[in-house]
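Database export, one record per block. Field names are fixed; values are copied verbatim from the stored entry.
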Amino acid sequence: MDMRQPKIRVRRYSDSNRSHLKFVVNYREAGKRKRSFFEAQAQANSFATFKNAELKRNGIEGAEFPTSLRVMAQNAVELLKPFGKTIMDAAQYYVAHLKASERSCTVKQLLAELLDAKESKGVSRRHLDDLRQRAGRFAASFGERIVATISGREIEEWLDSLNVGPQTHNHYRNAVRLAFNFAVRRGYATENPATKTEKANVLRAPPGILNVTQAARLLEIATPDVLPHIAIGLFAGLRRAEIERLDWSEIDFESGLIEVKAEKSKTAQRRFVTLQPNLREWLLPVRKHRGLITPEDFNKHFIQTREIAGITEWPDNALRHSFASYHLAHFKNAAGTALELGHHDSRVTFAHYRELVRPKEAARYWNIQPETSAKVVPLVAR
């Protein structure tokens, strides 16, 4: 097969409307057919010679491919070389991005779909409210933006603009990351830009707990409507939301177990918590067969109880943290404490609560119990 390039030649030209032009050279440039006209044959020959030399130098492909595109392609190759990628790799990646942008949606629409999907899967109301609040704040800033066009840098700048503590920063980051994971699954984005943001460094302080005297005083002051909630928090370690959903019928005084149903648990997993002897003594005088443990106006009465007990500084999640710390110190079984708390990993429990309480104080804590002569009477902390 003859692969020689066709030679560009000078041809005679005749046109009554342009009688002064006598010669023509036909050639291709940037993939298009072109013609140049000349009055003198010497000029035409010179031009044809130049074009033949150019054709020989660049080849047929060079004549068919625009110079601007050749330069652009070469620049692209140099940019991609450090990453070991080709122009085709880059084109395919960008086309995927463009297609995702075309079928993408706004942040506001994404949040609505995410909340509907979560609700349909039966996630807890508390989780939904938290997601609605945190991702909703992101939607307030980016509501009408197309999801696929938002960069990691924009998300990081937004997180920094919140001016919140490290732990809260990470909570917001997790909510946004969850939303973009959902966007990727729905095909609204090709990647999750939130994963490119930096996680804030949280310096964990020891969990705040009540001392034995404070715990005893709190129970001594508590009225029958708030006493069960406080006692279960201190001696069973249920989360506040779990106690608020707990029904009296879920406390089995015969078997000595408290049932935390899956739909009432933060982890959406059913578990049984031990009804400790001193907790049993606190609950028996105010026991009911059914009905919620926690009254609707609990918070108001709980605050009053704390004030009367003289507890001015209330540690975050103090009831549950107190239970975990005193339980681990007294029973010396991280796996057992984790099981009671509903933790998946006893290492987390051990790392958070070990050495917060001395064994002697733990023994006093688990001996806090009421006298039996009345419903709520002065207690003995042995």
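Remark 1: Confidence is low (pLDDT under 50) at residues 373-382.
Remark 2: Residues 262 and 268 are 4 Å apart (CA to CA).
End of record.
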